[in-house]
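Pair request: fold both.
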Amino acid sequence: MTRSSSENTLEPEEQEPRLKEVPPRNGGHDGENERNDSHQNNNSQGGQDEEKNSPQFPPLPVGLLDSSLKAVRREVVLKWASTVLILFSFILCILSLYWAVLFHVEENMSALTVAVVSFDGRISPYEGTSPIVGPVVERLAQEQAMIQTGVLGYRVHDADMYNGDPLAVRQAVYDYKVWAAVIVNANASALLQEAVATGNTSYSPLGAGQIIINSARDETSYYNYIIPQLYQFQTDVTTLFGERWIQTVLSNTSLDTATYARVPQALNPAIAFSMFDLRPFYPPQATPAVTIGLIYLIIIAFFSFSFFLPVYTKFLIPKDHPPLHFWQLIIFRLFATTAAYMLMSLAYSLVSLAFQIPFSNDYRHNDTNMAQNPDGYGKGTFVVYWMLNWVGMYALGLASENVTMIIGQPWTAFWLIFWVITNVSTAFYAIPLSPAFFEFGYAWPLYHIVNGSRTILFDTHSRIGLNFGVLFAWCAVNTLLFPFCCVYMRWKTNKEMARRVPRRTIKYLVDG
């Protein structure tokens, strides 16, 4: 009966019949004994040395500079030098990516666009008012825009672009069309002039304008670059306008000094801006869920291969059972890996739930109002979050499994570092601030896991369809490559076994 190829994986060679040993004749023994007696004393010391170096005894240690180690020393030095050269080159090439992602931040700062829109005197019933606040803000924004590096990309937009509606400007910030907006309210000049003329003590400088941000979009960019510069912009506007405004008031003889003395805030600072964060980044423990915690999603998916491979290979080792067909093992591995990713991603998601990241806030809110901890999908937010982590882990993990089966040890460590750095550098930092080289990150899995997580947890502008679509594309491509990588790994393993076990014939067929 013909055995399958898995049963024939290791097959001993046919052995030739052994010849029957013929005992020597007595005469031979006598001659040999005479020779042994004559040389017994001379070979006593040599016999001890031969006994020490015989196969039954390991060689005795020698010094590093011993002549017998000359060839070994040369081999060790060459391998050490080549290994250091490889590691040296890898550090320069791959680790440099993490530094390089922030190398052009100053030059690319203008990519963080800020819309400056003045409605001052442009909306009824304030259309007849002569604007004095709006022109100052627009002029300063134009001056800032002329600076080449290190300044946000201020863009002065006409109010007609937004149909005279300040809420449309907020919508642009929410929809990721701009990173922030500076709005001069329609009544900014009218209320200020009325305050000094009538002594309106209820006047608030903060009613002159608005600064709109959306920090949950990318808290790192907002806290490091955008918000500090917006505060500086507000200070510069207040200083520039305040100097001119006080001179205007003091030189206007029609104004009563006692009247405007009752509203000192109308003289200094005169105007200010209220800041509105449409989607605040909160609570703080949400940080790992959209940044550093996702690194562990990559690492867990990577090392799961080493844990599960010995389990799967038990089907191929015929111990008290026939081996499994290899093609069936591939299918089993694929389904088992998918199930493992599902459970591991659930555990990862439960960590965020355990530390009370909100997953069930379903109160009503809209895009243009400030919302505290608004979940993207109400009561179903956690399930969507789990599904995103599951698909993301599959996309990240199966790619690692395929590469691991192709390159093998010890090169898998290089792959893990490369995979982590390229994903982290493009997902945790704003790609518009990076050199153009890093635009490949728009197609990398972690970028879409991060952005999808922000939509789910903070109800930011939704591109969840695109996020899942890219992740599913990664899953599909790696699933198609998975069988070929399995076949290659088995071929490579059998080839290695043939080299290490030369007295056996190793037969390999995929349909084992």
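--- second member of the pair ---
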Amino acid sequence: MKILYAILGFFCLLAAQPARANSDKLPLLDLRAGEDAPALASFVRFAKRPGVARTPQLEAILGGPLQHIKGSTIHFGPPGTRTVVLLKVRNASDAQGSWILTTGRGSLKHFRLYEAEGRALALVVDATDPQVARQNLGTYQAFSSELVLAPRQEKLVVIEFVSENSTYMPLRIETYGTFFKDRRANISMVSGVVVGALTLLLLNFLFFSITGFKEFLWLAVAEAFFALNTVHSEGYITIFFLYDKPLTGVAVEDFFKCGFAAAMAQFCRSFVKTADNFPRSDLTLKALILFAVAVMLVQPGLSLYPADVRFFLHLSGWIVTVGVALFLPFVGYAAMKQLGSQLWPLFIGWASLALFIFYAAIASMGFFTWLPINWHLSGPVGLFESIMVTLALGLNLKKIQREKLVADANYAQSLGERLEISERATRLAEEKAYALETVHSQNALLHASGHDSRQVILALNSAVAVLKRQETPGGDPALIEMLESSADYLNEIVTTTISGANIAAGDAEFVALGAFRGQALIEPLTMMFKTPFANKKLTLKVSVADDVMIISDKPLLMRALANLLSNCYQYTQTGGARITLALDAGRAIITISDTGSGMPADIMAALNSGGRARLRGNETTEGTGSGFGSAKRIIEMLRGTLEICSSTSHGTEIRITLPAASPAVTPISTDELHAGLTEWTVLDFDQRSDFELGLAASDSETKPVLAVTYDDSTVTRGRLGQLVTMVAIKPVCRELLRHPLLMAASEKV
């Protein structure tokens, strides 16, 4: 809008320029029979006559100040004022000559042509008479008159006219041959432009009907307005329809101009997608379209408005047309830069049109009377612009088609990849089913092996008991203690092996909770790993607080810690490992650190997040992270956390947090436990008859079942894992009630 205001101010400033005065002497134009007259600009004199229409008085005109034309363009300044033009000619040849004096204008509010006869003026052409105007325009295409001069005869021609759109008047004196040759050329040019515009119009309508793209429709509308304006600017609409309505001719001209501008602006909005790509430019285009439509709507009543209003409306028509013409090249350039170089014809076409329209507006309004004007160029310039815009549309469609082909190829490729992935997924599903079947078979074997191993363990325990009762001279008490600890740990291994098999089989939620001291958890692990660490010249240090009672599943915890210590042993070459256990705000904190080579940050992040990765990326020994992953699943199943706190080239530190830990525990009865767990069904497995009755009764309830027993053997775990939700190992304590697994009973339901 700022551009429009600037243009309006510029026009108003120029309109205030005073007319140039000149001498009142009339120059004589010599004509020669059979030859065209030279350019008439330097021989023309004119005067401005404000006021009402009346027959001009020759003496009064000659007695007043006369102005002359500056430059080669015959232009009489800003429109709206009555203008009197004087031209004195003489036949300088010895033979009679005939010429045609043509004005090149056909749409004038008031036009009369006189020939001086002494001091009087004889009316030759009176275009205020509709019949005369129609006959004159039909014969000559523009207001014209035959000029017949005898040898050496002089004649003064006086033309009086009023124009409200432009005072440009390309006066020419031509022979009949030249006149009709120019007329035929003009008709051919107009016909070519119109045919070309109509061809593009039909093509764009065809493209619109095929593709459905609205930009083709708006371009067709713009070309229709352009074709009509070309026909009108050359006077053909005036000749056949508006010969007696000059003001209507002005209204039609402005209507066509504004229609073309609005259609081109809307085409730009649709084609460039300014609402999405250039929001600010889109607002400007909307404003210009509304302005153009408003000017078009008031044109039908133009003859009813005062002269000042008519001039303002005509100026507004030029302003909106120039505004659109100047704005479009900037949008075209931005579109070419952002949307693709294939839009270069858009910028070139709009730039050429903008230059011509801006120039035509200034020249037409008479602000610079010396500017040359060639209205015949409007047709070729407009046609060139339409061709460029249509070319841009074609190139853009070609790009869209090319991108569509690429997209289709990519889609076909992705479809093939999806099919391949689907086939791979099918194979993996089959392999998974086979693996699960194998795992189930292995689990069955583990259960059987565990049961058999229990017999060996019982025999080993019996032998240890006999050794302890016998006081054999030379016996080694330390050796007996080691055998007893090893037998206990072997029992724990068998138990956790069976539990691990249950976890792998999908029974990952079965837990047997019990209260035990921290030393009872750590000491068997120390005895198990002390000798292997010493053989590798590694140290294994243990720091366990005395006042830590843990409520958890001891065998599962030992399995998890054994996996972590095994990793420390495997990936530590010098130094050793350290285990600490402490109590912190009702939680047991177990820290395992080593002096190994550490692991990369991405590997550590993957392990902490539950992903599978190698534990040491720079070691020659391959690792899958399965030991750490198994430990992490067990700890999380027990509602604890397992995290690698740090890992550098100097070692790794792992932190385990277990809930429900305290300095001591308070023993309670099974009934008290049942009273405290209102959302559980508590059954005593050691009371078999009551247990079976209670288990049968619980089938109809929605509460989960908690079994309480002294027996933490593999056989008992396996049996109860099929019957109840969870197991509590006697003696039970009050602190057991606060364990997250028992507090989250609603999740089990």
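Observation on the second member. Residues 670-748 form one domain.
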